[in-house]
From TrEMBL:
Pfam families: DUF418 (PF04235)
Entry protein name: DUF418 domain-containing protein
Residue intervals of the DUF418 domain: 264-413
Keywords assigned by UniProt, alphabetized: Membrane, Transmembrane, Transmembrane helix
Species name: Halopseudomonas salegens
Transmembrane region(s): 35-53, 86-104, 116-133, 139-154, 166-185, 240-263, 275-295, 315-337, 349-368, 374-395
Domain of life: Bacteria
Length: 424
């Protein structure tokens, strides 16, 4: 049986190995993965942008019924192409990156749990700081938890079983939605459930209004308390669901890494082409159907249309990210301008939150709820372009983004060189 690709190339390639463990220059990186990270940041920003000026509680309300015309079109476009598709892609990339690091560390005899434990500890601390003091939609804490779970329970799982566990972890939430769909298709059962849900919806709408008032009028400390409350409420409702989904994508990323499919691109071009030519259009079709159905009723009241849309969205959320991944990797040589953004992905992710919460929150410019949806789309794309420029400028002078530098220094318990030799 052919051994995993990382044993043939990544671990035995001293340059790549040194990059993973000792932070070598960009020329020795797997640049196509940086390109993919840069692309993923665009989708993350498109999705997160509205939640910089809406409470997280509004996620459970469904789409905003006040949207019409071009604003509804912008919301539909983002829901179709980005929502629920890019956090899986980022989770895949985390799974790939952590796998490369752990396997290389093992091969070099590095004290794995000491180094890796510090890395995950700081990621969790950054996530906690982010959700409490910047924006409650943080995903980093979940990533840190899932990385620990992956290594505790799946580090020695055979390659052939990784994708099977992925199907189990992602399939269980989809199965639960399918069961719910069977229930809501029964008119008698649906009527009874909707009577019970009417009170819950009213309470939810009141909570959305209350949270909005805090973000608009509250002091920084009051907003901080609301951020923590919102995040805890979100975890209470969706925590297990989110952990299963993200861990599933982590394992899929691990499978993609150990099989070499995202490492040795020429050897796996057929796999990538298949996903780009079949998976991408199929994912786009399913996502379009999901989005169209989601707008055909009230998800809170379990109208059948949005429930079917939710199920199709979970399926599209597996297929479309892999289609995006394949298409971007095949075109990576033409998209290298995204690589600097990918190299500073953690810093740029945090920058998105810092800038736009400062624009929208009451303790900043106070534009909460005042920017139409279409202009949110325009601003997100424009800011992404600015981030590309910033990342190019930054990496001409510094070896890492500021958050990446801190993360690496803490991981190896040694201050890493920060400035580029050419700029010092």
């Amino acid at each position: 049986m052919r051994e995993p690709y990382y044993e043939q190339s990544v671990i035995r390639d001293d340059e790549v190995q040194e990059n993973i463990i000792n932070s070598t220059p960009a020329a020795q990186r797997l640049v196509h993965l940086d390109v993919l990270r840069g692309f993923a940041l665009l989708g993350i920003l498109l999705v997160n942008f509205q939640w910089f000026s809406r409470p997280l509680q509004a996620m459970y309300v469904g789409y905003d019924p006040s949207l019409t015309g071009i604003n509804l079109g912008a919301d539909w476009l983002i829901s179709w192409l980005a929502e629920g598709k890019f956090y899986p892609l980022f989770a895949l990339l985390f799974g790939i990156g952590f796998t490369l690091m752990t396997e290389s560390a093992t091969a070099k005899g590095v004290r794995f749990w000491t180094v890796y434990g510090r890395r995950l500890l700081l990621l969790a601390l950054i996530g906690l700081f982010h959700l409490a003091f910047i924006w409650p939609g943080d995903i980093l804490l979940i990533y840190a938890i899932c990385a620990v779970l992956m290594l505790l329970f799946f580090r020695n799982t055979p390659v052939q079983r990784l994708w099977k566990w992925t199907l189990v972890l992602i399939g269980v939430p989809a199965l639960l939605v399918a069961v719910l769909l069977v229930i809501v298709l029964d008119p008698v059962a649906l009527t009874a459930m909707q009577k019970a849900l009417a009170h819950e919806k009213a309470a939810l709408m009141d909570d959305v209004a209350r949270a909005s008032s805090v973000y608009i009028n509250g002091s920084f400390s009051e907003v901080t308390s609301e951020r923590i409350r919102s995040y805890w409420s979100y975890l209470s409702l969706d925590g297990i669901y989110l952990l299963m989904i993200v861990l599933g994508y982590f394992l899929l990323g691990r499978w993609l890494a150990v099989s070499g499919k995202v490492i040795d691109l020429p050897a796996h071009r057929r796999f990538l082409r298949r996903w780009a030519m079949v998976g991408l259009p199929l994912g786009l079709l399913l996502a379009a159907l999901s989005t169209a159905l989601f707008y055909q009723g009230d998800i809170v009241m379990l109208d059948p249309g949005p429930v079917v849309g939710e199920f199709l969205g979970l399926v599209a959320g597996v297929i479309l990210p892999l289609g995006y991944l394949a298409a971007v990797l095949l075109a990576a040589s033409k998209l290298t301008w995204l690589a600097p953004l990918g190299r500073t992905a953690l810093s740029q992710y945090l920058l998105q939150s810092i800038i736009w919460t400062s624009v929208f929150y009451g303790y900043g410019l106070g534009l909460w709820g005042q920017v139409p949806r279409v202009w949110q789309l325009v601003l997100a794309v424009a800011f992404f372009a600015l981030q590309v420029v910033i990342s190019h400028w930054w990496l001409k002078r510094y070896r890492f983004g500021p958050a990446e530098w801190l993360w690496r220094s803490f991981t190896y318990w040694n201050w890493q060189p920060f400035k580029n030799e050419k700029s010092s």
